Amino acid sequence: MSTLVLLHGFTGGPPSFDALLEHLPDQLIVRPWLAGHGPAPIFVESWDAEIDRLAALLSREGIRDAHLVGYSLGGRIAYGLLARAPELFARATLIGAHPGLRDRDERDARRAFDARWIAMLEEEGLDAFIEAWESLPLWSTQPAALRAELRATRASHRAEGLAHALRVLGLAAMPPVEPESITTPIQLVVGARDPKHLALAEALAPRLDATLAVVRRAGHNVLAEAPELVAELLA
Questions:
Q1: Measured distance CA(196)–CA(138) in Å, rounded
Q2: Nearest 5 degrees, angle CA 137-CA 110-CA 75?
Q3: pTM summary value
Q4: 79, 97, 195, 229: which has the fewest Cβ within 10 Å?
Q5: Edge-to-edge, what's the strand order for the sheet holding 3-7?
Q6: Cα–Cα distances in Å, from 101 out to 37, 159, 208?
Q7: Where are the domains of the chain?
Q8: For 131, what's the count of Cα atoms within 13 Å in the CB-facing half-sphere?
Q9: Buried b (16+ CB within 10 A) or exposed e, 24-53
């Protein structure tokens, strides 16, 4: 039986993959909570500590030759795992995954951007944060019914947990991808209505020797907007 390791996005969780799994045959599924997420969040010291924690967890589970699937934050974490513990994975599918920021000014700007969200979480609470987060243009491609469905998972978190995730797993904390350090076959998946991540994927795919699948009519969260198409790509 094949194994899928599923890594969710920021404000998501293991339930984020429920719709996807409805379209997949029986497989061994491993879908951990990432640091800072869930009703009982795990706190880690750094980005590297989270990569080490997940690699150790998967090793204890006896994972080998798995198909690693990561969406957004989970895709960024997946890059770290592929560089640190490639022996665990036979291939990877990364959905809307940013390869990291190399420019110092961009990293500083992103750190300041995340700091505003952290302040909102710590000062105004989870409900205010969710309301503001869901108003971002990034989610404009999602119908109201899907937004309501995703909100249930977002509401399962704790404000201090998500603030912690932004501090240690935010884009500014992520070391940029070094393509030469990754040897695992990779498939990049991105929504056609997500121009930022589409441009990043198009630029990175040749350097990773990765295939690129562009999902029409989908935005950033291809996982939620087109789970049946993602299932086809995983197969």
A1: 10
A2: 70
A3: 0.97
A4: 195
A5: 28-30, 3-7, 66-71, 89-95, 186-191, 211-215
A6: 23, 26, 16
A7: 3-234
A8: 6
A9: beeeeebbbbbbbbbeebbebeebeebbbb
Determine the Cα angle at 97 with ends 95 and 103, to 5°: 165
CB atoms closer than 10 angstroms to residue 154:
20
- According to DSSP, residue 180 is labeled G
Mean pLDDT by 10 residues, the chain (235 residues): 93 96 90 97 98 97 95 98 96 97 96 97 98 93 90 96 98 95 96 96 96 96 96 93
| CATH code, residues 3-234 | 3.40.50.1820
Contact partners, residue 152, CB within 8 Å, separation at least 6: 15
